[in-house]
Amino acid sequence: MENHYYRSFLRWKLQQYLSDAGFLALNDLESKYGIKCPKLSKLRELRKAYSEWIPLRTTTWGSYMHVKHAITLLTEINPEILDNLKDKHTLHFRLCQDGTWFGRYLNCIVSALGWVDAGEHSQNAFSLIPLSYVSVTKENRDNVEQALTTEFINMFKPGQVMEIRGVEYNILFSYSADYKMVAQVMGLAGPCSDHFCNWCRTKKLKLSGMRKLVYENGFGNNVAFCITDKLQKHSYKSYDDKDKAAEEENIKNYDQVIL
Questions:
Q1: Its domain of life (predicted)?
Q2: What is the extent of the structural domain holding 123?
Q3: How large is the average pLDDT for residues 129-140?
């Protein structure tokens, strides 16, 4: 307890939120190469060199790196996984996208690349490579289609082959996003579902006895949902099917909310 040297290191570890595994990995690197941890200035110089080696492509709405540079980074970070896949000659990556906002007015679409072959424990946010950041005035189909340029989309075309460490690999891409993001990127005809609409839990084969459930959302608009007769008895006031004018107005408001 009186050893100031050990106490200082423990305090530093706690202040920097460094895990036990991370501290052990640092000790292992020092033992492996027989030197102390290099100065931060050296690591910054190396990081700067990598940043210059990976050029960013700038557009009117933001910037992105080429997906092949992201693949190179992922495979360099996990060389042992790449060694185990040499015989398969296929690498599987996933494009992750989601919309978010900063403050009240800055809406943006963030894209990142993950490596499926790295396993389930390597799919968290810290294991992804940031791929692109684009800003949009409002998150809808037209703005997303404009901000995600054709050049960016074409980076993920199927049938690509990439040479890594002297070995050729077939590159397979999959897409990961919530249903709203998929609909905005691909259009309403892009995603397929057994359900009648984005919010229905009832499948298309069980559409008998469906009614419209209407309620006023936080924006003051009436929103129509599909709901079964069984649930209707325990829910909000239902539409009067005879009131055609009210039904048409509600559907119009519903479309405005979705679009």
A1: Eukaryota
A2: 56-186
A3: 87
Query: Model confidence over 60-81: pLDDT tens digits?
Result: 899 999 999 999 888 888 888 8
Query: Last residue of a domain, which of 129, 159, 186?
Result: 186
Domain count, the chain: 3
- Residue 155's identity, in one-letter code, is M
85-94 pLDDT, tens digit per residue, is 878 889 999 9
Share of the chain above pLDDT 70, in %: 69
Q: How many residues would you count in the chain?
A: 259
Residue 13 falls inside a structural domain = yes
Q: Are residues 214 and 246 in the same domain?
A: yes
- Please indicate, yes or no, whether residues 177 and 241 belong to a single structural domain of this protein: no
**9/15 Cα distance (integer angstroms):** 10
* Contact in structure between 129 and 70 (CB atoms under 8 Å): yes
In the block, which residue shows the tokens 């992105």? 64
Do 165 and 221 reside in the same domain of the chain?
no
